[in-house]
Amino acid sequence: MGLHADSSSPAPVEQALSRPVKREGVSNGKGEPSCSTGSCRSKQLAVALTLADQHGKNGDTMEKILSWQQELNSSEEAWGKLEKELDPAVLSGLLWGWLEHLKQPVLSEADLTNMQNSLTTDSPLQHLNKGQAETLLCVLDCVAKLKDLPADLEDSLLERIAFAFTVLRRKDDNVPKEQNDFLKRTLKKLLKERRNI
Description:
Layout: H1 11-18, H2 38-52, H3 59-74, H4 78-82, H5 88-100, H6 109-116, H7 130-144, H8 151-165, H9 177-195
């Protein structure tokens, strides 16, 4: 299974994102960077800034992203090679590109309404199908590994997730402000929960 734009199955992306990442031999054994130095903090901020970026990538980065997309679409073995990619701009470009080019957004306006109407239940995710919930949680788990982010950067990251997961990404569609605000509050709450796991 490749990284086809019309695919609605998030399984390969979930697998790629959930693998432990080892960077330059610095790991705490759980696949998370060991933050004994200021360089780890700098790297986390750089990754967060890259993930939050809604602007286009530079030419070299776009070439790498397009090359990876082509390879991932044509070869199952490419997913193993992707583990060695360390450039956060390339990895975030692949992630957002995949989500934003699905035929339908992961969360429709009806999904947001159902989530909003579920305030009496434990989790608004209960009203999503398994693929939707797992895809959202997979991305939030990645963001949860970025600790102690400035509030404005965390908000930008959550806005980026909302943009990629909803019809906000479609220029001709508008998610009502009330639903958009609800989604951001929900993402913030879910992110806090994922950090406490």
